[in-house]
Amino acid sequence: NEGLISREEAVRRVTPEQLRQLKSMARVRDGVTAIASGVAASPGVVSGLICLEPDRVADLAAGGSNVILVRPTTSPEDVHGMAQAAGIVTATGGMVSHAALVARSWGIAAVCGVETLQLEPALSIAGRRLDVGARLTIDGTAGKIYLGDCVEAEQGVLGSMLISPRE
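-> structure tokens emitted (167 positions)
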């Protein structure tokens, strides 16, 4: 704000650890009701577009979108998509599942073991049919899933830039 360095330089000076801390400072807006819950597998609150295919995550992320990778479970074949995702949701798994371990090690929010998640014949969570590309918010700290963009940064412009959807 004092004009001593450019905005670009300020962003370059932010470390990965500081990004993880900022991500954990996000929260779900007050008064929003979760549509489903699962295992709080990796902390963080993020909003993004639903994507079912790991191959497609990189394309969407390259276009500037936050993406939530939604899978029945994850495996090493999914890692390329997981690496580009803002968040991960799986129908099965727990604290030591593949999705949980990878998400925690990379600082990606994740909710695993969402028993009400169905991918066939159509995507639905808790009986609500959802379209690929619809927006979800996940709270990997509490293990909750919300419809739409429900993210609220608790402090700072930089935090809201990094936590809010990229579009």
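The first strand starts at residue 26 and ends at 28.
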